[in-house]
Amino acid sequence: MKTSTMRTVAVSAALAMVAAGCGGGGDDGTPAATKISFLTHWGPDQVKALEAAAQAFQKRNQGVTVDIRAVPFGNLLSTLRTQGSSPNGPTIASVYDLWLPELVRDGLSGDMPADAEADLAANWPKNLVEGVTKQGGPRGYPNEVDLYALNYNKKLFKEAGIAAPPRTWAELEAAAAKLTKDGRQGFGVITSWPAGVVHPWLSLVNSNGGRLLDGAVPKLDDPRTLAAAQLYSRLVKSGATQAKMSNANANTTGPYLDNFVNGRTGMIIMANWWQGALKEAMGERYQDVGVAPIPVGPDGATSASVSYSWLTVVNGKADQAKQQAAWKFLTFLNGKDSGRNGSSAMGDILTSMGILPSSISDLKAHQAELSDPFLSVYVAELANAVPFPSVLGGEAMSQAVQKHVENVVFGKETPEAAMGAAQREVADILTKAGT
């Protein structure tokens, strides 16, 4: 997930373009003196870019004011839940797609109006539109798409005599063994952060032909899923993965990042959004970072990363005037005349952070930036990615899987016991969530 530690590399250009706006023009129906708010967890640079977009929108819609509110990622969902029903609660929120089913159920993600729905259908890939469709209709604008790939240290590979990044699990284990020496681990994993634990592991599951769910049925005890837990167990037992080097959080701070940045971890599986954190932390050493598809397991046919997305929704509990203004702002923010060179303002902001935008026009407008050696692998693998299941009970499901994968990493459970327990717990969570 994107975080406040990521710094922009092109926000200044986006700010200048958006702030210039297209002055004049009045409101086309939204009542005067309408104040809406946009809740995000982005950092100061991204907030400034959103504020610039808001200023440009306000010039076109006199009487409408957009207030950008930022909270830490850990407080984002709770803030929306606790403040969403109040008159001054957030009108718009940037949300993780895993939260969407519950937000729709609870009325915190309202209906998309017909004109915005038509805009979405015309300008976003069909699979992304389907991903934001819940209870019979689309619920918001997809903004970013994130997926995973193998990140590795090219300098350490060369020193270890490894000619190319691993394409299979067998090659992954062999490379990890060669890289492990002098206090360095060959392959690093994350603990303490649900998505950071589950998504890389599940990318290996997917690349072995397994799945987390088959419809609403958990598949954690499937042999192809169990095999990924057994892979982790072998790496830990061999010393190629060290639990003490794994701690991290959604701000990419902690031993996990530090060990990769400082050459104490040879390989990791991580998402495209953390490019900014790597560049900032590594400086000139960033040139040592290589990217490759997720290695394929013995029962898999192709690399198949987990993907997930973020979207902007409008609070269904806000009054109708605010909802109307909010959808207008989102249509503007995601429209290709709000940014530079055919991009939307949102596309400019996302790309400046190394994040893949999701609209067709934004991907085209930012083709040059998305072709850099780091991001190009993620873009190429997007077609093979498997979306993380967005279902009622999804967050609790993810936390249950996290617990048992961590138990394997810390040697508290065998892979067989961990996956058996996870299967039972996830089945129970999904059953209760659906009742």
Automatic annotation (TrEMBL):
PROSITE patterns: PROKAR_LIPOPROTEIN. Pfam families: SBP_bac_1 (PF01547). GO terms for cellular component: ATP-binding cassette (ABC) transporter complex, substrate-binding subunit-containing. Gene3D superfamilies: Periplasmic binding protein-like II. Residues 1-22 form the signal peptide. It comes from the Bacteria. GO terms for biological process: maltodextrin transmembrane transport; maltose transport. InterPro entries: SBP. Keywords: Signal, Sugar transport, Transport. GO terms for molecular function: maltose binding. Belongs to the bacterial solute-binding protein 1 family. This is Multiple sugar transport system substrate-binding protein. It comes from Nonomuraea dietziae.
